[in-house]
Amino acid sequence: MPITIRRALESDAPALSRICLLTADAGTSAESLHDYNELPGLVYAVPYVKLPTTFGFVMVDDLDDRVVGYILGSTDTRAFEAYAAKHWWPQFAEQYPPSLAKKPADERYMNLLQKMHTSDDGCIGFSPAHLHIDILPEYQKQGWGRKLIAEAAAYLKDEGLKGVWLGLDPRNDGARLFYKKLGFQHVDGTSDDHMGLKF
């Protein structure tokens, strides 16, 4: 199938949010877990086309001009966290109070919006840059994940960075194996849920 990789745009936000939802349950769809389907994307995808210090690339299926995968991240995680704490999370913390939640997954995200986690110092010591990658299931295992990571790595090297790290769902063994094949290793001094790649 013909696929184009291009820079992510702010106008891609709805597609990014949808992909995030369809892969949010350890790589599978989280639709049934949420009444508020937008919550995973508001945390892990949409900020990366809205806030400073971010970058991203998307996979587009040329047959229907549909975004079917992405790699998103920040070149300066601490700056991203500080900006989001002032200008991004508060509006959604107000919009989605935990009292609205009827499902555990919604409650978990709503609590997160009230007090967003910050990155482990060990990860920041490894690299100031982090990323997220998600591809719709029907486009996986075709080499596109490797190409997206190569695209992001080339961009980050041009920005003067020497590595990047990511967090992963501990239940997603397939993702862990995929990253290991690409040279990602456990980031020393952090939990098992963090892997990093030196360029």
TrEMBL record:
Signal peptide: none annotated. PANTHER family: O-GLCNACASE, PROTEIN O-GLCNACASE. It comes from Rhodocollybia butyracea. It holds the Pfam family Acetyltransf_1. GO terms for biological process: glycoprotein metabolic process. CDD domains: NAT_SF (cd04301). One of its GO terms (molecular function) is acyltransferase activity, transferring groups other than amino-acyl groups. Gene3D superfamilies: 3.40.630.30. This is Acyl-CoA N-acyltransferase. PROSITE patterns: GNAT. Residues 3-199 form the N-acetyltransferase domain.
